[in-house]
Amino acid sequence: MCMFCAALPATAALGAAAQGEKRKREKEALGRGESFKFARVPVGALTGLVVVVLVIVSTIYHSHHPA
Question: What is the 3-state secondary structure (H, E, C) of the chain?
């Protein structure tokens, strides 16, 4: 398995974990009545973008380097 293909499931798993952690922190902060102080980073969108880039790079790699 090439490095790009191996990075796809790892990226998706890390993105899902980061999204879950972000939601957990948001929920805890709101439960304590604190104003939301965390940066509003679109974790899901960034993860999706990285996955799409990896798929494109993997396709280019495999079309030029048949294995």
Answer: CCHHHHHHHHHHHHHHHHHHHHHHHHHHHHHCCCCCCCCCCCHHHHHHHHHHHHHHHHHHHHHHCCC
Q: Global pTM?
A: 0.77
Separation of alpha carbons 51 and 35, rounded Å: 32
For residues 6 and 24, give the distance between their C-alpha atoms in angstroms, rounded to a whole number.
28
Domain boundaries, the chain: 3-64
* Residues 39-53 pLDDT 10s: 677 889 999 999 999
